[in-house]
Amino acid sequence: MAFKTDIEIAREAKKLPIMEIGAKLGIPSEHLLPYGHDKAKVGQEFIKSLAGRPDGKLILVTAINPTPAGEGKTTTTVGLGDGLNRIGKKAVVCIREASLGPNFGMKGGAAGGGYAQVVPMEEMNLHFTGDFHAITSAHNLLSAMIDNHIYWGNELAIDERRIVWRRVMDMNDRALRDIVVNLGGVANGFPRQTGFDITVASEVMAILCLSNDLEDLQKRLGDIVVAYTRDKKAIYCRDIKADGAMTVLLKDAMQPNIVQTLENNPAFVHGGPFANIAHGCNSVIATKTALKLGEYVVTEAGFGADLGAEKFFDIKCRKAGLKPSAAVIVATVRAMKMNGGVAKADLGAENVDAVKKGCPNLGRHIGNVKGFGVPVVVAINHFYSDTDAEIAAVKAYVAEQGAEAILCKHWALGSAGIEELAHKVVAMAEAPSNFAPLYPDEMPLFQKIETIAKRIYHADDVIADKSIRDQLKTWEAAGYGHLPICIAKTQYSFTTDPSVRGAPTGHSVPVREVRLSAGAGFVVAICGEIMTMPGLPRVPSAEVIRLNAAGNVEGLF
Fold first, then answer.
1. Which of 107, 238, 323, 424 is catalytic?
2. Numbers of helices and strands, H then E, in the chain
3. What is the pLDDT of residues 36-66, one digit of tens each?
4. What class has domain 131-250?
5. Is 275 considered catalytic here?
């Protein structure tokens, strides 16, 4: 059976002018800053004017651990937003922006798929409105100013061995993970070892996504710890006097972007921290604005619920005072079979036993999300190769876990294929939510890491050198003990080994490094072999991305 590609479907979209999309939410045209005809930014003054309005219901879409078989979390987020509008609810979608790194690497874009997409797809997956470039520039301005400060006499007595601020770029480039800068003699400064992270791992990205307004943004930027003196006194971004200029560079990037789904429903696309190395949620300002404008806001958190959902609940909701009304966990029959040991090449053949064998991964995510006090429903993202017996096996397993699994055909049918899930979400959201984060603010930092490892990953223990434990205690003594934890680890497994599928127990979580993100307001624990600067695969997607004779992009999907 021949199917149209996502990009072909997106190109055929009958888009409305962005001013009409804004009007659906009651945004006056003078408060929209258009980028062409089909995307715009929402002005800060209008956002401030919404403060007195009541909030709509917040719905989180999360998923099982990702597999090469594909799950379709963003597709389901977009589809559910369309589905809620279809049944008469005023719903807004909130997703993250796409990073160029994975687009040209192996993951592809981040705008949904099939007939559940946000458009303009090509622009969203490339430069969009320039937000990521602004974040990259602001981050690297601070890097340049640190080295410049040292070059001109180092008045702050920065210990060059203790500079913790690295550089960033929005590309997968493993060659830049560890580098030496300032070579070439006296005129170029003092040589030191440093490196690059990918832009989506930048603390500036996290700060933009957690800030409420420009004033909050500048304060948080000023709070960034960039280095230490020889006696280990912290040096902040505001000591370097970079926070004001960084805010100027981020002035437009701070304004949420509004676009539309294929069915001409409004979607906010803003911010894009990775969930395996950052907190994995779209911006607080976009989510809060959407909650003031819509009855329902459907948002996603990156990768599986062990990463994205945990960080959504424990970092974003905690920091922003958000209270989710329901959660949707996306799963596919194909992914259940992969978790059950079936190779990707063999996924087309019916294998009910493998589906049953792979379901414990889904079961653990259901239990984990329920542990936050949020009602849960499972969305089975339908593939044409799924059989009735396989679908029935998933539904039966989920029922045993005290939840319901609903078959969703939004990829092929758009909103018409997800009405049942939309009605279920409305019913769930009407009941009171008993949401609570996993741990209290006052819990010691290492104990917070242990709590996540044991309750979410079902690990036996956390392995960390004395130096790491001492570092956490030092930060507690400096007043950072109340911060939540942002775990950086592989997205493919509950363990730190990406090859271990299913619902493993009896494993340990090794913490390799901890980083203080004082401006963003969390402590990063880097676990296992996870890299904050990814590399390209052997055959990167970039090899097949090109312009065709008609001037259209090919190979992006």
1. 107
2. 21, 25
3. 999 999 999 999 999 999 999 999 999 999 9
4. alpha beta
5. yes
